[in-house]
Design goal:
By secondary structure, the chain is mainly alpha-helical. Helix content is 41%, strand content 10%. Strand 2 and strand 3 form a beta hairpin.
């Protein structure tokens, strides 16, 4: 996921600078990229038309995300790249009984929500429509992953 596209170039450079990736780029599977303290997944398993998934498309894929979340036992920090990822991660962990909330926490770049021992950090997605327009800069994305790294290290002690 994200390997070999412009969004991935942004993501892997930022993950590398925060110490989550072994190299600043990944061009193909088997290229030597190693992630540490990091797992990448997606809400959807296919690219929707105009990159705007319908609720039914998200619902169809939710069982895959739920199973991944269920299997990941040591998660402490979740970074949602985009509103869809942020909200579906929260919904997934609520469905699994790990967190609880009455109203969906508001998404925003750099927003932090804590519940059930988990920390959720929102980030604009590194899509070209966000990076080309300047809505998301490399410094902004670096800030989110630096925050995630700091929170992981704080919890380790």
């Amino acid at each position: 996921m994200f390997t070999g596209d412009e969004s991935g170039r942004w993501l892997f450079r930022s993950l590398f600078r925060a110490g989550f990736a072994s190299r600043p780029e990944s061009s193909h599977i088997g290229d030597g990229m190693m992630l540490t303290d990091c797992y990448i997944t997606a809400v959807l398993r296919c690219a929707p038309p105009q990159n705007r998934p319908l609720p039914i498309e998200t619902a169809r894929c939710s069982r895959y995300l739920l199973e991944e979340l269920r299997l990941l036992k040591n998660v402490r920090v979740v970074v949602g790249l985009g509103k869809i990822a942020f909200e579906n991660a929260l919904r997934g962990y609520r469905t699994l009984g790990r967190i609880d909330f009455r109203a969906m926490p508001r998404f925003g770049h750099g927003v932090v929500y804590e519940s059930g021992g988990l920390i959720f950090i929102g980030s604009y997605h590194p899509s070209q429509q966000n990076t080309f327009t300047g809505r998301l800069t490399e410094a902004m994305l670096d800030g989110v992953f630096a925050d995630a790294r700091a929170r992981l290290e704080k919890g380790a002690g």
